[in-house]
Amino acid sequence: MLVIVGVPLALGFRYSMHRVFLYDFNNQIFKGLDNYAYALSDPLFIKALNTTIIFTLGCVATGILFGLLVAFLLNSRKVRWRPFWVSLFLIPFVMTPVVGGIAWRFFMWQQEFGVINAIGGIFGADARYWLLDRETALFASIVSNSWHLTPLSILVFYAALSTIPDELYDASHIDGAGPFQTLWYVVLPLLRPHVLFVSVILLTSAFREFDMIWALTGGGPGRSTTVLSILAYNRGIANQDMGMANTIAFTMFAIMAVVAWIYITIYRRMLEKST
Amino acid sequence: MASLDLKHVGKSFGAAAVLHDVEIEIGDGEFVVLVGPSGCGKSTLLRVIAGLEEATSGQVLIGGEEVNDVHPKDRDIAMVFQNYGLYPHMTAARNMGFALKLQGTARAEIRSKIEAAAEILGLSSLLDRFPRQLSGGQRQRVAMGRAIVRNPKIFLFDEPLSNLDAKLRVQMRSEIRALHQELSATTVYVTHDQIEAMTMADKIVAMLDGYVMQIGSPLDLYDRPANTFVASFIGSPAMNLLDATVVHDGLSLPTNQVIAVPESGPHESHREIVLGIRPEDLILSDAGLGLVVKAVEHTGSETHVLAGLGEHTLTVLLRERTSLAPGQNIKVMPREGRIHLFDQQTGKRLN
Questions:
Q1: Do A170 and B85 touch (CB under 8 A)?
Q2: What's the complex ipTM?
Q3: Which residues on A lie below 8 Å from B77 (Cβ)?
């Protein structure tokens, strides 16, 4: 464990403080925090950070919203063939993100015979070049990645919903709550810890997402979908600048650590309140 | 407060009929207990009254008005559930006030109603606690408080005491009873426990397999059970039931012993009937039915003697201590006028 996790981590951290070029690997110069200072003042880094935040929040929001929606539908008493629907909704989750990305690119977003434009066409919308348009590429990436992440949230919410006893629904029915009031006052508050849990998982997953975006747009068009992980890849592999790539990676690590710490604090408080 | 009438109420889930032609009249302020074994339809009937289930046929009338198509919240009823049905994320006070909040009642008014109800139930110091911080009995009280604050026309209780321990159950029983006397609201109470039914009810509705078997006061059902089901279900230890045949001078029992038949009973010879005698109505005597003692159980206040009559076992309840031992022969006589006779085919009462 120490070797497998520790050594790359330590090496990566060392590189992030050095000037390391792959073509000039033996000539490493200590730069201290200069790399970090440079990254934070680099407009490309700031733009990528921005894109990452939009991408992450978009995925978390979509994942939670659709997760709740589908879980509610699955949990409804009238549903038949429940196991079938549950397993159907889980398919995106077991699919490799790259495969999912390629499938979305060729079958869904594709401009001439993609499903999205076909459906849009029925409603009279103009066919768009979703992945080739700066204005829509990020949106399309968020949609595709949410498709990949939502099943996890469906699974957790569905499991959580099925633990809510029928008696509570009866009680709120008798108390005079309509379906939406029951949802708002009774069900959602009970799901609060689960929403928090799922959002942490989705957040960390979306924040470091690489393969899905790589398969869809490769970070383009222009830099419109270049998130931090893709920027790090470009710096490290395309520019052969391993020092900067590791600096970016460690900055991501630091951001996630802070976010995780905030979440854990909130989660603890919530648990303390409920025990 | 209001009366509650059920007219020919039937309920089926798909092909399975769980309630058949239920006909019950409940007067204003009456405390009615629906009692029967598991699966007899009593809880379903309560849910039909509450509006949580729709009656497949027949009418439900509250205060003389048909409410079949009326939403539960507009029926002006309150219900106490078996597992309390409290919202785990709300304090006791918010649980109690939730219905009022939904109705848009002013905060101050909700608060004063909650406090008044808490006063009655002894919950005043517990209002800010969450359900998980309360004991079973306290949760039950909060659930009752939630019902009280709404001041409903009808209270519905669905086996509210079945999760409490024996001692607490006895205590809550009298508390619910006292509460009913104080509020004198029409109450329908479901239980499978015949003691609860006997001790709490103004009127008992005994049910089996979705049919109403008998409606009457507790002592009515005890003293004059309408059929063998009620006879065996009400009373503990249960009534002794024996197959018997009418002969010219009385009833012939399976062991060919003969006992006298009451005057009101059937006299057609050879008619097959069921003879019922309550354990406390069998008295030890010098003459009468010969039995062999199988076991003696002491409860402290009374003694249950299980005695064999051929292949059958009868229970004899004695108020005094006894030195009877297994294997001993005893003779018992039924108390005068305390014999119950039922038709063997239909199970209906004959005398």
A1: yes
A2: 0.80
A3: 174
With beta carbons less than 8 A apart as the criterion, state whether B86 and B131 touch.
Answer: yes
Residue B175 contacts by C-beta under 8 Å, 6 or more apart in sequence? none
Residue range B29-53, pLDDT digits in tens: 899 999 999 888 888 999 999 888 8
Q: What is the pLDDT along chain A (275 residues), one digit of tens a residue?
A: 788 888 888 877 777 777 777 677 677 777 777 777 777 788 888 888 888 899 999 999 999 999 998 888 888 777 788 888 888 888 888 888 888 888 888 888 877 787 877 787 788 777 777 777 777 888 888 888 888 888 999 999 999 988 888 889 889 888 888 888 888 898 988 888 889 889 888 988 888 888 888 887 877 787 888 887 888 888 777 777 777 788 888 888 888 889 889 988 888 887 776 65
Q: Which of residues 38-67 of B touch A (CB under 8 A)?
A: 47, 50, 52
Closest of B13, B139, B97 to residue A167, by C-alpha = B139
Residue in A44, A258, A65 with CA at minimum distance from that of residue A149: A65
CA distance B99 to B80: 13
Q: Which of A77, A167, A169, A175 is the best mutation test for B, with the most CBs of B within 10 A?
A: A175
Contact yes or no for A102/A215 (Cβ under 8 A): yes
Contacts of B174 (CB under 8 A, 6+ apart): none
**Structure token pair of residue B180:** 């009913």
User: Residues B146, B149, B155, B159: what is their CA dihedral angle, to the nearest 10 degrees?
Assistant: 20
Question: Rounded CA gap, A3 and A214, in Å?
Answer: 29
> Regarding the domain delimited by A44-274, which CATH topology (the fold level of the hierarchy) does it fall under?
MetI-like fold (1.10.3720)
Show the CA angle centred on residue A114, arms to residues A110 and A118, nearest 5°: 135
Q: Do A176 and B87 touch (CB under 8 A)?
A: no
Residue with tokens 């109603």: B113
A168 to chain B: nearest residue by CA?
B85
